[in-house]
Write a structure and sequence with these properties.
- The mean pLDDT is about 95.
- The chain is built from 13 helices and 17 strands.
- Helix 4 (about 90-100) runs parallel beside helix 5 (about 115-125).
- It is globular.
- A 9-stranded mixed beta sheet has the order 16-15-14-13-7-12-11-8-17. A 6-stranded parallel beta sheet has the order 3-2-1-4-5-6, with helices on both faces.
- By secondary structure, the chain is α/β, with parallel strands linked by helices.
- The longest helix is centred in the C-terminal third of the chain and has 22 residues, at about 340-365.
Length: about 425
Amino acid sequence: MSERVPIAIVGCGGMGRRHLTGIAALYRTDFRNVDLVAVCDLNLQNAEDLADEAGQQLGARPRVFGGISDMVAAMPQIRGVDIVTDAASHHRLAVAAFEAGLNVLCEKPLALTIRGCNAIIAAAASAGRVLSVAENYRRDPMNRLIRALIDDGAIGTPRLALDLNVGGGDRMIITPWRHRKLSGTIVLDAGVHNADILQYYLGGVESVYGEGRLFERYRRKGAAGGPGGFYAKWFDQVPDRFEADGDDAIFGYLRFASGAIGQWTYNRAGFGQPFSTLQVFGSKGSITSQGHRNGKTPRLFVSEGQEVTSEGILEYAPSYRLAPVAAALFGGERPHTYSFPFAETDAKILALEYHEFAECVRAGTAPEVDGAVARHAVAIVNGLLESGVAGRALTLSEVEAGGVDSYQREIDQHYGLA
């Protein structure tokens, strides 16, 4: 094993706790290529708490800092940071990290707006450092299998993708900031996952037409601590009811560069029976995803609606092979299913993000989800929101160029980006 890459976590809240489990999962493999040497947060108590957890999980307690500049001055050996703060601060912290000479792994979404994304991408290019974005759905082995099925022609030429999600009611989703326009609406913070998996399956999006909506102007606390319970320690600080001003639903028609069509509904203010489906239809058959990070085998339907079941699905995906580190984590090179608790699966996928990041830092290579890929996913979401304001279809090229920004302008002005 080559020398491990010294890294730091920037942001010691719920996502920081969650990412720590990913580092711990990587430590337990023969592919460990990172050392967590520091944690950083303006809230020093959160940083101290995460350092304590790291000491327990990793066997060594990282140093604690309140800012990136102080951390770099004290520990110049650090080569990379993992930014896991709220989405609104990504552009500021990532730019600061690149200016300090660091490589950056940044949680999704890359930024709230296209201008924010562009600022990060420009800083990475100027510094000559690696920018990787932690997009996890596509790293799920079952999504790797779906992509291989599509690439290997199991359903012929892809024609239509349906991604429909309705549910949530008026309950808070993880944290209050995800319901406010200036800090990151749920349709961007969570919806960017959907945008990315659609582009992962079918390639780049050429144009979008749609709109966003704010249905529930007040949210109630609910009774959850977020995915895996990582936010539970701060749950008592959340008000029982709070005002929301960020879109909680998005409705879109997507045209892919390949000519395929996508219909996307992401409604996190839906009452009644929850509904969710993700399907890709082609000229010879269809694939239905059974969800992300649950290990359920995708459903493949071939000629005349015949379903291919269980391990037989692998015959239709000869190119499907997990990378060695993924194969070690998920129990094989070509799994058609797996069975782990959610938190363990989540940690394994985060471990893959860290491993790839460190390999890119060591080799100077580009990650799978670089700035351009991450910006495209942000542009799909913001493009639909901009389309609703403009009242017309928009090309992704004009959105990514910043030529259409009526929806985003308030956010950019608030953060000094415009």
